[in-house]
Amino acid sequence: MSRFRMPPQILRLVLLTLVIISSYFVLRMFLKPESFGEFGHYRGAALAERAALEPVFAGAKACAECHTEVIEVQDKHEHRRISCESCHGPARAHAQNPDVKTTAFAETRCLRCHAQEPARPITQKQIVATDHYEGKCLECHLPHNPKESPP
Amino acid sequence: MNPPITRRQLLGGLGGMCGWLMAQPVAQAAKQVVQKVLVSTLAPKGYDPFRHKWLMCFDIDRCIGCGLCVDACKTENHVPEATTYFRNWIERYIIRKPKAGSGEARGEVLVDSPNGGRDGFPPSLVPREEILKSFFVPKLCNLCEHSPCVQVCPVGATFDAPDGAVLVDPNYCIGCGFCIQACPYGCRFLSPETKVAEKCTLCYHRITRGLQPACVEVCPTQARIFGDLQNPIENDPIQEFFRKNKVNVLKPDLGTGPRVSYANMDKEVR
Amino acid sequence: MNLLLATAQAHTVMPIDGYVYPNEQNFLWSVLIVVYPYVTGLVAGAFIMASLVRVFKVKALEPAYRLALLTALAFLICAPLPLLLHLGHPERCLEVMMTPHFTSPMAMFGFVYAWYIMAVLLLELWFDYRRDLVMWSQQVKGPRGLLYGLMTVGVDDLSPRALRLDEKMCDAITIIGVPSAFLLHGYVGFIFGSVKANPWWGNVLMPVIFIFSAIVSGMALCVALYYFINWVRRQAVNDECVDEMGMFLFYALLVDASVEGLDWLHRLYSAEESIYILKQLAAGKLFYSLLIGQVLLGTLLPLLMLGSTQLFRRQIPMWIRRRFYLVSSLLIVCGVLAMRWNVVIGGQLFSKSLRGFTTYKMELHGQEGWPIAAALMILPFIILYVLMKLFLRPDQPTHEQVHGHQAAPAAGG
Fold it and tell me: Is residue B165 part of a domain?
């Protein structure tokens, strides 16, 4: 046995293994997404795709572009730090086209924050709705200026 | 027998194959460099994820449990309507007074979150005089430093974005659910509509446009503090939050390093 | 919206054992994920059984050698199916191979699986069967003969030197195969054991427990199949072989039971925050499947039966021993299935808030229904039947039986 001859069964297996491994790499070249690994082990394009989704809430700045006088009033009173959309609902559709109305303001909105609840911090103004003219909030309170009564 | 293969042929074939295999990574790397130079995939225009580090924190003493954040999140992100899918939610903790003579400092702890707190909370069944203390805890993705969900994703469909958000790539997720099992905070779910994992994205499509996340936008009491750690503004709320409060995180013992911090958190919260 | 409000109103404050995170109300990993570790466990166990013959030269087990290998192959072919079926997007499954995320234990699945099936099991079978394939391809006519011919990959060298090489390769592959079988199943255990968020799963001992329960279940399956096949073929079982299998089964079960006992001892003694809810879980929701099914019927009773055959082998007549082996192997096969159920389903029955429980109801319809799971449990047996029709024919003598060899006759009569 002076010269090494690879046994036939081993040779076939080695070739088969090489075929399998190289076909894996070929497949990988085709199936790996383009932007994969751009920033890390993920599809880099996913960031842009996420960012491209359309918002539903407009943000307070958008409201201020038209409704300056309301915001001027609100800014002087207790509700100054509450965003318009907290009570009026999502407004991006409205901001883009004023004909589209926002959700109607309902008086149950007041109770969401002001109904009595032991878990609420004591600094929060709370009422027991049934003892306090339930459903008639707007008869005595102006939401933009809650301490004032309507004229 | 088959025609014999000479040693020369064999070695040549093997060598060629090895060379071809070795050339692959080089070709790939070259392709990536070219891509990086020529194509910028960052959108919207002008937003660079490497120049921001977003973070949300909570002041439990300010949360009034109105549930506007939960509702806003569902609307903004088209979260499945059913009462078992939430990207954020509010828990109500009620700690009873200890039984007289029990020698304990605090009584039974009751937690609930009906519909995630989306519709506010119904009056608690525990009479006021039996309550030692009660509070709300808003929850969302804890934006972990060492996110277990990212660690276990088998394909790289969930990842730590450079700007601090932990995102899911809905076009790449295989829906195995491992990340949902790995999240200690229950912040993920498998969407019944898209069959992929879903979670809070910090409203990625809003923050990249200069807007605030929807839940922060509608929170009436500033219980949610949101900001960019890399670009502090004047009187930055998040810098102030860490300066003024003693803060804590959820399940610190797991070593996930949650970045989301809570001020005034009681020991029962988990 | 009104309806939503109404349900919210109806919701009452629940006591401390009644809160789960809202998203945890959706039960995620169902009976399919119970089947998956069970099936891979049977693979690993059956392979270890076969390697007892090869590596440890347990001559008495030779009648069951090829059966054990083919059983492992049949189950291994089915192992990825439950995983694939439970995915939200099965069509994206190749991503696991194309962009594997190496920090994820699940990403290794494709590679561990490919390694095990191709580099270990198929290779060992090929080397073991090569001389038979060459011989059969010359003797058998028709499509079957053609299939044998294809499987020789064109190598028809039957010189003593080539046969010696086959033997040597088989031994070498088995030696690689044993740690590979541990890897295959230890890795399944690691998928669960690495989830630190879940105190029922996150446990260093998990891979070890999985490996030993896998060995036990695979051996028990081989024992049961050996009985069954001999019953079908109206042959008498080889008493020496079953005695030997019973012995190995007993010791494997003993180790398995000790490791699981150690796990519980450690949990109870270290008594971490989660122990209260885990105790409630074991004594409540998992009472029947854990304490009765897994511990009592699946472990203690077989231990008693097998142990008595070991201690009092002379006093217990052979016909009772035979029945003891059969009954305890069936009990073990069911007990390990219960164990997989307890791990997978049990781990999702309690909230990670440690404040409450969810419930799991097996579905009938859909992707994750129990009929599919049952079909996946039956499929390997169908594959095994086909494999045996091809490679374990009593009417088709092997090369060794025809030409004689230094080794004893192989399985299949």
Answer: no
Nearest to C16 among B109, B152, B185 (CB): B109
In a domain, B185, yes or no: no
Domain coverage including residue C106? 28-393
Closest CA to C81 of C117, C27, C123, C39: C39
Asked if B171 lies within 8 A of A49 by C-beta distance, the reply is yes
C319 falls within a domain: yes
Q: What string of DSSP letters covers chain B?
A: -PPPPPHHHHHHHHHHHHHHHHHHHHHHHHHHHHHHHH-----STT--GGG--EEEEEEGGG-----HHHHHHHHHHT--SSTT--SSEEEEEEEEPPPTTS--SS--EEEE-GGGGTT--PPPSS-GGGEEEEEEEEE----BTT-HHHHH-SSS-EEE-TTS-EEE-TTT-----HHHHH-TT---EE-TTT-SEE---SSHHHHTTTPPPHHHHH-TT--EEEEETTS--TT-HHHHHHHH--EE-SSGGG---B---EES--TT--
Could you say which of A42, A59, A124 has the minimum Cβ distance to residue B169?
A42
pLDDT tens per residue across all 413 residues of chain C: 333 333 333 333 333 358 999 999 998 999 999 999 999 999 999 998 888 888 888 888 888 899 999 999 999 999 999 999 999 999 999 999 999 999 999 998 888 999 999 889 999 999 999 989 999 999 888 899 999 999 988 888 888 889 999 999 999 999 999 899 888 888 899 999 999 999 999 999 999 999 999 999 999 999 999 999 999 989 888 899 999 999 999 999 999 999 999 999 999 999 999 999 999 999 999 999 999 999 999 999 999 999 999 999 889 999 999 999 999 999 999 999 999 999 999 999 999 999 999 988 888 777 778 899 999 999 999 999 999 999 988 888 887 777 765 443 444 33
ipTM above 0.95, yes or no: no
pLDDT digits (tens, 9 = 90+) for B31-83: 555 544 444 333 456 899 999 999 999 999 999 999 999 999 999 999 999 99
Q: Cβ–Cβ of A9/C118 closer than 8 Å?
A: no
B220 CA: distance to closest CA in chain A (Å): 5
Q: How close does chain B come to A64, measured CA to CA in Å? A: 14
CB neighbours of residue B36 within 10 Å: 13
- Sign, CA torsion B251/C198/C97/C125: positive
What CA–CA distance (Å, rounded) separates C216 from C120? 20
Range of the domain at B60: 50-88+139-143+201-263
Question: Alpha carbon of C217 to those of C330, C332, C384: distances in Å?
Answer: 9, 6, 17
Residues of A in contact with B17 (CB under 8 A): 18, 22
- The domain locations on chain A are 8-51, 60-140
Threshold 0.90, pTM exceeds: no
Q: Residue B84 is nearest to which of C12, C22, C101, comparing CB atoms?
A: C22
C94 at A interface, C-beta within 8 A:
yes
Q: How many domains are there within chain C?
A: 1
Is residue B124 included in any domain, yes or no?
Answer: no
Alpha-carbon gap: C126 to the closest alpha carbon of chain A (Å): 10
Q: What is the DSSP letter of C119?
A: I
HEC string of C341-375 equals HHHHCHHHHECCCCCEECCCCCCCCCCCCHHHHHH
- Cα B122 from Cα C10, distance rounded (Å): 9
Nearest CB to B114; choose among C11, C87, C92:
C11
Q: How far is C91 from chain B (nearest CA, A)?
A: 8
Which range (A139-148, B105-114, C271-280) has the least confidence? Answer: A139-148
Residue C153 sits at the chain A interface (C-beta within 8 Å): yes
Cβ of B115 within 8 Å of Cβ of C88? The answer is no
Overall number of domains in chain B = 1
